[in-house]
From TrEMBL:
Entries under NCBIfam families matching the protein: dctP (TIGR00787), TRAP_S1 (NF037995)
One of the protein's GO biological processes: transmembrane transport
Protein name: N-acetylneuraminate-binding protein
Phylogenetic lineage: Bacteria, Fusobacteriati, Fusobacteriota, Fusobacteriia, Fusobacteriales
Entry-linked InterPro entries: DctP_fam (IPR018389), TRAP_DctP (IPR004682), TRAP_DctP_sf (IPR038404)
């Protein structure tokens, strides 16, 4: 649903996004200072993923998070949660057929050593929120609150630039390591995920419907 980081930034300025940050403030006791890009999740595997059909039956390691589990489930794979520390060995021994993570993580963890196929599935955009406790923020005078927020925004912009700049070079890096990169038709993946959004709107009613409409409207 989220196209890219620019789309995400627009989405958080909708009523849905503002309400979400307000919940963080009111229920978690945290103030959102800034938001940074933290990579887009792609899929590595022990066979080429050229289309949605190639996902069928694949044992895909995912974290125990609703969106990641849903991605595996609705694309036809078999969701396989496991600890992050166990992933490399599981890929190496074919205990699982694939995993999904941002490109920077795939490089850092050297998953390319044991998985020679990378599909640009663009299925989840990771962000990083810069947070401060409400108590800490409220103890500061207004001029220092402004300094803290502005500093967080500068840091988040730099954070975003680092990730985006690295991602531009990583395809070439993976190719140099013998990884085959495929770009499946993402429209098919989006269509496959429709039941996930239907469940969301069923659970959240009009609020859920309005949220999805608002996010789609600012694409």
């Amino acid at each position: 649903m989220i196209k890219d980081f620019n789309h995400m930034k627009k989405a958080v300025n909708t009523k849905f996004g503002k309400d979400l940050f307000k919940k963080v403030h009111d229920k978690k006791g945290m103030t959102v200072l800034a938001q940074a890009y933290n990579g887009t999740r792609q899929t590595t595997s022990n066979k080429a993923i050229k289309s949605l059909a190639d996902m069928k039956g694949m044992k895909l390691r995912v974290p125990s998070a609703a969106a990641n589990l849903a991605f595996a489930k609705y694309t036809g794979a078999s969701p396989t949660p496991m600890a992050f520390s166990e992933v490399y060995l599981a890929l190496q021994t074919n205990a699982v057929d694939g995993q999904e993570n941002p490109l920077s993580t795939i490089k850092a963890q050297k998953f390319y050593e044991v998985q020679k196929y990378l599909a640009m599935t663009n299925h989840i955009l990771n962000d990083q929120l810069y947070l401060v406790s409400n108590i800490t923020m409220e103890e500061l005078p207004e001029n220092l609150q402004k300094v803290v927020k502005e500093s967080a925004e500068v840091a988040a912009e730099y954070h975003t630039k680092l990730f985006m700049d690295e991602e531009k070079s990583l395809k070439s890096f993976f190719k140099s390591k013998g990884v085959t990169i495929t770009e499946p038709n993402l429209a098919d993946f989006k269509k496959a995920m429709k039941p996930f959004y239907d469940e969301y709107t069923k659970k959240n009613g009009k609020v859920g419907e309005d949220a999805i409409k608002a996010i789609e409207a600012v694409r």
